[in-house]
Amino acid sequence: QVQLVESGGGLVQPGGSLRVSCVASGFTFSSYAMNWYRQAPGKERELVAAISGDGDFAKYLDSVKDRFTISRDNAKNTVYLEMNSLKAADTAVYYCNAVYCVNYKCEPSRGDYWGQGTQVTVSS
């Protein structure tokens, strides 16, 4: 049974930091690129950060570059999103997503899983 379980969300003041985690089970974690998406009220879901299965490549939404860092620990089947210098605009539900990839080519039809989301609220 495939599961992605996020944790670590909460309320933080502007300029603060937060780390969200996602623990995966039920599939071969290292064969999947891991993504963090977010969705704010009234807005479409957007890709915030992505990391390759081996952890060698990462990419970020322009608005979070130099503030957010995605990382993974394949031994623990866990992906992290470290968020610094948080802004009110970062308030959203953050979702963990796993997509099957081979040689850096992703094939969602072979595996595309989502977590339930964790709320991040940035407010004073």
Provide structural commentary.
With 124 residues, the protein is an all-beta fold. It contains no helices and 12 strands. It has strands spanning 3-7, 10-12, 18-25, 32-39, 46-51, 58-60, 68-73, 78-83, 92-102, 105-106, 112-114, 118-122. Strand 7 and strand 8 form a beta hairpin. The relative contact order is 0.31.
Q: What characteristics describe this protein?
A:
mainly beta; four-stranded antiparallel β-sheet; 124 residues; eight-stranded mixed β-sheet; globular
Quaternary state of this entry equals single chain
Low-pLDDT sequence parts: none
Number of strands: 12
Rg is 14 Å
Mean of the pLDDT scores?
A: 96
The count of helical stretches stands at 0
Task: Please estimate the helix content.
Answer: under 10%
Series of secondary-structure elements, N-terminal to C-terminal? EEEEEEEEEEEE
The percent range for strand residues is over 45%
Q: Which outline best applies?
A: globular
Derived from helix and strand composition plus strand pairing, the structural class reads mainly beta
The CA-CA distance between the termini, in Å, is 40 Å
Main sheet overview: 8 strands, mixed
Short description:
By secondary structure, this protein is mainly beta.
Write the layout of secondary structure elements.
Elements: E1 3-7, E2 10-12, E3 18-25, E4 32-39, E5 46-51, E6 58-60, E7 68-73, E8 78-83, E9 92-102, E10 105-106, E11 112-114, E12 118-122
Parallel strand pairs: 2-12
Antiparallel strand pairs: 1-3, 3-8, 4-5, 4-9, 5-6, 7-8, 9-10, 9-11, 9-12
